[in-house]
UniProtKB/TrEMBL annotation:
Name under which the protein is recorded: Enolase C-terminal domain-like protein
One GO MF term: magnesium ion binding
Originating organism: Lentithecium fluviatile CBS 122367
Alphabetized Gene3D superfamilies for the sequence: Enolase-like C-terminal domain, Enolase-like, N-terminal domain
Domain Mandelate racemase/muconate lactonizing enzyme C-terminal: 208-306
Keyword DNA damage: no
Sorted UniProt keywords: Magnesium, Metal-binding
Pfam family, one: MR_MLE_N
């Protein structure tokens, strides 16, 4: 079959379609934690239409169910900013394009560069990156891996971060990271560039037996690092982690991390964690409010004597929040999010800052849709920016294998490197018809209507 040849100059964005996709993850407890109960992992989904028949850019934002309609409203607003533009206009200077996307002076007031407007910017730019990959016939990670350091620098808007990284210092980092790049590319092509850890056994809704069953299964699959949700009750958490250590032991090379998903105040986090440090977690993730930079710094300092680190970033609003986390020695891990930050461009800005501070960049992950995009981000960080392997979360979700066009795969506890052109987004036939809110066949029936109400009322 002959492939149609496109170029950035002959592809123009002519329109778009926004679809509110919601998946009933509350059915099986996938995604459950101390803060998020009864969630339905949702993909505010955008298709960028072009003047070339059949050529569509696909991007997503992310939510937990209710609230997706607000993100979709914003996607409709921000997508208008790219309609009528050629891909050459958008990609010839992506740093300039990124600045343009966040610079509507009126919508900026309800951001700026954060919250629902930034989710929409991410969704639109994720679709632009997907479209660019399809034009070049490359996966997104390979677009950037094939760039010169100077071209990578042009992807970034450096406003607000030049006290940490400048275009000049970024260029120096990227040139230094050229050493060994060829070998890292070979590892990527051999599916050995991105080690995976798993949360499959760790969701809070799982019973003890279910947790143990999933843990044994993931050990058999080759995993050595596992994450577990905590934060609702000290005694319950101690029982769960004790059961985990009974299976894993302490001296078999297995590591655990734990995740509180923002439920504690700073003093509560420190006190609570003193009851869990005996189980030797590598880090506690999101121990407090994600905007509390100094609170994270205080928690990290208090836990350091116990050998427990702090990880955060999945809800960090933008590169400025990450800059402050790094400046304040508030985190041991920079957990960038593919849909919370302003797409690939802002993620690379954070990778560069993390590299400057010697902090590993470990993207937030685990949910359907995110696992597909973040595998690209980890490859970019390893091959292009840091030159160092870290880890990437994976949580098995049967839906992503059924409904996504290019589902992420883990083999021998390593991510299989994506090779399809684009950003690994897009859905199989029938997915939209079944899960579009509120008219899809699942949500239109009585079970679906009841399921979307799960967790609506907080417990008093």
């Amino acid at each position: 079959m002959t492939r149609t040849i496109f170029s950035e100059t002959n592809v123009k964005i002519t329109g778009f379609k926004v679809i509110d996709l919601r998946f009933p993850t509350s059915l099986d407890g996938v995604g459950s934690d101390a803060m998020h109960v009864g969630t339905n992992g949702s993909h505010p989904y955008i298709q960028l239409q072009t003047n070339q028949p059949g050529l569509v850019g696909e991007g997503i934002a992310f939510s937990n169910g209710r609230g997706s309609e607000v993100v979709c409203l914003c996607l409709n607003i921000f997508a208008e900013r790219v309609v009528g533009k050629s891909m050459h206009e958008l990609t010839s200077n992506m740093g300039k394009t990124w600045r343009y996307m966040v610079s509507d002076s009126q919508y900026r007031w309800i951001g700026p560069e954060k919250s629902v407007t930034h989710l929409a910017v991410a969704g639109v730019l994720n679709a632009v990156w997907d479209l660019w990959g399809k034009i070049l016939d490359k996966p997104v990670w390979k677009i950037i891996a094939d760039m010169t350091p100077e071209e990578v620098v042009r992807l970034i808007d450096f406003r607000y971060i030049t006290d940490v990284v400048t275009p000049e210092s970024a260029l120096k980092i990227l040139k230094t990271s050229q050493a060994g790049k060829e070998e890292r590319m070979k590892e990527a092509l051999n599916n050995r560039a991105v080690p995976a850890y798993t949360t499959s056994a760790g969701w809070l809704a799982f019973t003890g037996d279910k947790m143990k069953e999933m843990l044994r299964q993931t050990i058999a699959e080759g995993y050595t690092t596992f994450k577990f949700k905590v934060g609702t009750d000290i005694n319950t958490d101690r029982e769960r982690l004790s059961a985990v250590r009974e299976i894993l032991g302490y001296h078999k090379g297995y590591q655990i991390m734990i995740d509180a998903n923002q439920v504690w105040s700073v003093p509560e986090a420190i006190d609570y964690m003193k009851h869990l440090v005996e189980y030797k977690p590598v880090f506690i993730e999101e121990p407090t409010n994600p905007d509390d930079v100094l609170g994270h710094a205080t928690i990290r300092k208090a836990l350091k004597p116990y050998g427990v680190g702090v990880a955060t970033g999945e809800a960090a609003q933008n590169r400025i929040t990450f800059k402050q986390l790094l400046q304040a020695d508030a985190t041991d891990v920079a957990q960038i999010d593919a849909v919370r930050l302003g797409s690939v461009n802002e993620c690379i800005a954070v990778m560069l800052m993390a590299k400057a501070f010697g902090v590993p960049c470990v993207p937030h992950n685990g949910a359907m849709g995110l696992v597909e995009m973040t595998s690209h981000l980890s490859l970019i960080d390893y091959i292009v920016v840091s030159g160092k392997k870290s880890m990437l979360e994976f949580a098995e979700n049967k839906r992503h294998r059924v409904y996504q066009k290019n589902p992420a795969e883990v083999r021998d506890a390593h991510y299989v490197t994506p090779v399809a052109p684009g950003y690994s987004s897009g859905y199989q036939n029938g997915c939209v018809e079944k899960f579009e809110w509120p008219t899809g066949s699942f949500w239109a029936n009585e079970e679906g209507r009841q399921r979307m109400g799960v967790g609506r009322l907080a417990q008093l």
